[in-house]
Task: structure prediction
Amino acid sequence: MLRALAIGVVCALLGSVAQIMLKISSESIRFADPSSLMNRYLILGLVLYGTATVLYLYALRGVSVSVLYPVISLSYVFVLLLGGLVLKERVFYWNYAGALLVVLGVALIMMR
Result:
């Protein structure tokens, strides 16, 4: 069970990095120009999402979905941190408070 939950955390992290890659790629994508879809950040983001999905499927073999899926919500926390660090987005104290509530919620679900 611990292994499956650790994989869930990795999935959340991969999905978060994928989200940052997609945000970076969105600046250069022009839908009228299909060649702009060959953006390295877009491709990397999609590969990371695919990898996270495969790992998630593997982790589901070891724990119930009602326990594992909330672990994926840690991606909200990771995106918040990465958005501030990588994208230099403004992060307010209430964002951190919300992230703390997500972490506490995941901890409560895992304490069964």
Notes: The radius of gyration is 16 Å. Residues 22 and 48 are 10 Å apart (CA to CA).
